[in-house]
Amino acid sequence: MNILIQNGTIITMHNRKVIRQGAIAIEGKTIIDVGKNRKLKRKYGKGYEKMDAKGHVVIPGFINTHQHAAMSLLRGYADDLPLQEWLEKWIWPIERHMTPHDIYIGALLTAIESIMSGTTTVNTMYHYTPEENEAKAFTEAGLRGVIGHVCFSWRKKEDERALEDLAKNWHNKADGLTRVSVDPHAPYTVDPEYMKELKEIREELNQKYGSGKAPIICHMHVAETSDEKEKIRKAFNLKLETGVMEYLDSLGVLDKHVIAAHCVSLTNRDITIMKQSEVKASHNPISNLKLGSGISPVPKMLRKRVTVSLGTDSPCSNNTADMFEIMKTTAILHKGVTKKPTLIPAKQVLEMATIEGAKALSWKNEIGSIEIGKKADLAVVDFKKPHHCPQYNETNQLVYATKSADVDTVIIDGKIVMENGQLTTINVEKVMEMAEKIKVRLLQRLACNVK
Ligand SMILES: [Zn+2]
Known about the structure:
Bound molecules: zinc ion
Mean pLDDT: 97
Oligomer: single chain
Helix content: 25-40%
Radius of gyration: 21 Å
Number of strands: 17
């Protein structure tokens, strides 16, 4: 389908260009033109479905670089707890009762929530099973994604099989909508030898299924809390003299296709290593605040020119998939902590949520900005609302005033997946009903197990 979006304010995220009274021409999956309305209207008449964006702002869809999509099923299940207790006593025991079908439904729910709040790409780390999985859910919803399989030292053989199946069936599949990643859970759950093996596995899978333009990346939690070194010592009897990133570097597992989630407890040397090895960061401020994990040294990373993207983390440590919330929190948190109101201005935050996210997923060649030749992944935001009035600066407005409910229409890969607030791909009510049923079943299975 060919689409001409007209009369909108286009925030391109390409050289920070904003086009008022702008238009975007889309042919198939691709943006073929961006410019002033009067010019494009003449060029693209017949054969284009017209979309009027008067009073709306059009942005590249958000790129959420740290998620565990299926965990939407546990939203609100365990709140107000510290990370380790939350994981060991609450999350891991109930997750053992999740079936592949449950995971698929949970991921559908997150895909819906993501699209409805303007996100067009999600980087998710979870348990992959061939039968049903997050990749299937994302493609059905029409959401772009990097789907990972999370690896632990205690299940190496199982992980190896899952990774092979995941890469074979989902890397650069669904017409390029899905890519995959190899995901060591964290330096305290993956022993040093396995960490190295997983890098080798990633290289092998890349040779078989990846390419320079569409690489299989690595996604892992790094330095989420200040006691991570202690956790590594306990788990592997390994006393680290360095920061956690420096330890990973000593294993030779870091490279430009590694995205590290959280990066809260970093040394200055760790940040230098990230810059040198081109490791990307996913900043998850709401999850870090909620779990009391601390505050990531984002201004320091940015000063060193490390790529910092944004993520929500799972819907049970956040508890939403809302990137508007993440943008505003990022913009105000570091100002408050450092007492420097000029730090991380709105335009930089919007970059972190879009183009920097694309860089972080090694996907910048196709997504992250509204540019000729890139995939048409866009969110159309309604600015005809009291909280957007009066309008001085659209970018500042998006970061400080816009709500996810203002997202009106979403296009992914040239396809309209939400129009006027209604999803076109998935029956939302039905997925919500199924998620409620799964909740009841999970609690029953957990109760039986406990007895
Ligand atoms: Zn996480």
